[in-house]
Design brief:
The protein is α/β, with parallel strands linked by helices and 450 residues long. It has 16 helices and twelve strands. It has two domains: 167 residues, Enolase-like, N-terminal domain (Enolase-like, domain 1, 2-Layer Sandwich); 249 residues, Enolase-like C-terminal domain (TIM Barrel, Alpha-Beta Barrel). The strands form two sheets. Strands 4-5-6-7-8-9-10-11 form an eight-stranded parallel beta barrel. The chain has a three-stranded antiparallel sheet with strand order 1-2-3. Strand 5, helix 7 and strand 6 form a beta-alpha-beta unit.
Length: 450
């Protein structure tokens, strides 16, 4: 039976906003100096005739989502922005009522064709990858869930039961989820606090000696300054993946600097995550890396909470890149490869033991994968795409609603804090960090929670 809470789209619009970085971020061998946000507004109506607005925002993220050697960076960014506009165009023509999960599920069936046609029109050397499609469409996905919650006066995470959803999870995943709805895997209330992962980029200064000229913008600049100012307990370390000596020495250097800072403030326990940006040739690289870290600095080894996808994102093309041996030592989470449920199943076959959720892959998709990861007892974390302001709050709201998420990444405050100003006034405990955590309990309003 049709539900009174079902919505239809009255109008969707898309705009773009450039946000400068306060300092460069080296990512996968490339250097970023700014980011462009995709902002989507929607007006929706439920079957009772009520109207409401929803909003979603996400960085284009082309360097991560489309790291092509055949398509120039500027063309990849332009194509993803064009794709975002085309998603909105299709949404405006979508005639039916439904739950946001249903609407996006049906609209997304067009993404692959859209990506190919767009590449042909632009004369690009390759079609848009599925990951880039998801990122480009994610702001619309978020806006739709936000609008759904607002028009029905409910938090969107509390509208995932049989009372709201029109299909059980077997419709989107497989028969293992027959009779189950997302409310089984989502908390009724956001967790009060979550640890925040601070990024230690490859270009980031560890000590004063690493700084040529200070920014003097009022924010910390060295790693000890960040640790002491924000009370950090979780550090994400960017590594090269193709230079074993550099990677080992970088972790040792970070650990030495962090240990001194943590000792100064009396902190006895902290954690690391390691990000090789898919650059490792094989699992043997990871194993040798871990062996050296354990040998040279056993305490640093013990602090490693998980390892992000270390080898190539194309799992089907690299079936020999099996993570079983590494996953016996530390959780190894799938990230760039994780574009749908089938990819999750394949990653498990290849030995991955954890999942990195990212709202930039779509709100609904993130919820599906969170459910699957819990059913399969996989390690869970939530990472971002240098998300500023609204986009970071969205990511944090997701993390706070998934019961087994270990921590949340949030590096927008490091690289593009200017975009946080508006939201910082409304949610100071989400942006002004003092004890290494964010107060996610405040994200309990209608819509996406804020």
């Amino acid at each position: 039976m049709p539900k009174s809470t079902d919505i239809r789209i009255l109008e969707a619009t898309c705009s773009f906003e450039t946000v400068p970085f306060r300092m460069p971020l080296k990512f996968g061998g490339r250097i970023m100096a700014d980011t462009t946000l995709i902002n989507v507004d929607v007006v929706v109506e439920n079957r009772s005739g009520k109207h409401a607005n929803g909003f979603g925002s996400m960085p284009v993220g082309h360097i991560w989502a489309w790291p092509s050697t055949a398509v120039p960076e500027d063309q990849a960014a332009k194509a993803m922005m064009q794709f975002a506009e085309e998603v909105v165009h299709i949404a405006n023509a979508y005639p039916d009522y439904g739950h946001p999960l249903d609407i996006v599920f049906q609209i997304s069936a067009e993404y692959d064709h859209m990506g190919k046609r767009l590449a042909e029109r632009m004369g690009l050397a390759e079609p848009m990858p599925e990951l880039a499609q998801l990122v480009a469409a994610s702001a619309f996905d978020a806006a739709l869930h936000d609008g759904y919650g607002r028009v029905n006066g409910v938090n969107s995470y509390n509208a995932l039961s049989a009372d709201y959803m029109n299909h059980d999870l077997s419709e989107y995943l497989d028969e293992n989820f027959a009779g189950e709805y997302l409310d089984k895997y989502v908390l009724e209330e956001p967790r009060p606090r979550l640890p925040l992962y601070h990024l230690v980029g490859a270009l980031d200064p560890l000590t004063e000696a690493d700084i040529e000229t200070r920014l003097n913008d009022g924010l910390p600049e060295t790693l000890p300054e960040w640790i002491l100012a924000d009370g950090l307990t979780h550090l994400k370390i960017k590594l090269a993946g193709d230079d074993l000596d550099w990677d080992v020495n970088r972790v040792l250097a970070v650990d030495q600097v962090a240990s001194e800072a943590q000792d100064h403030r009396g902190c006895k326990q902290w954690f690391y995550s390691l990000d090789f940006n898919e650059k490792c040739e094989n699992v043997e690289y990871v194993l040798e890396f871990l062996r050296r870290i354990q040998e040279k600095a056993p305490a640093a080894y013990d602090r490693v909470q998980y390892i992000e996808q270390p080898t190539h994102r194309d799992l089907k093309a690299h079936p020999d890149n099996r993570m079983h041996k590494a996953a016996e030592l530390k959780p190894v989470v799938i990230d760039e490869s994780l574009v749908d449920y089938d990819a999750l199943l394949l990653s498990r076959e290849l030995g991955y033991s954890g999942v990195a959720l990212k709202t930039c892959k779509g709100h609904g998709e993130s919820l599906y994968l969170a459910a699957a990861a819990q059913k399969f007892d996989m390690f869970l974390c939530v990472q971002d795409l240098t998300l500023p302001g609204y986009a970071f709050l969205h990511s944090a709201s997701l993390a706070a609603r998934i019961p087994t998420v270990a921590a949340i990444e949030g590096n927008g405050r490091q690289y593009c804090p200017s975009a946080n100003k508006k939201w910082e006034k409304m949610y100071p405990t989400m942006f002004n960090i003092t004890d290494g955590t964010v107060e996610t309990g405040v994200l309990d309003g209608i819509g996406l929670g804020f």
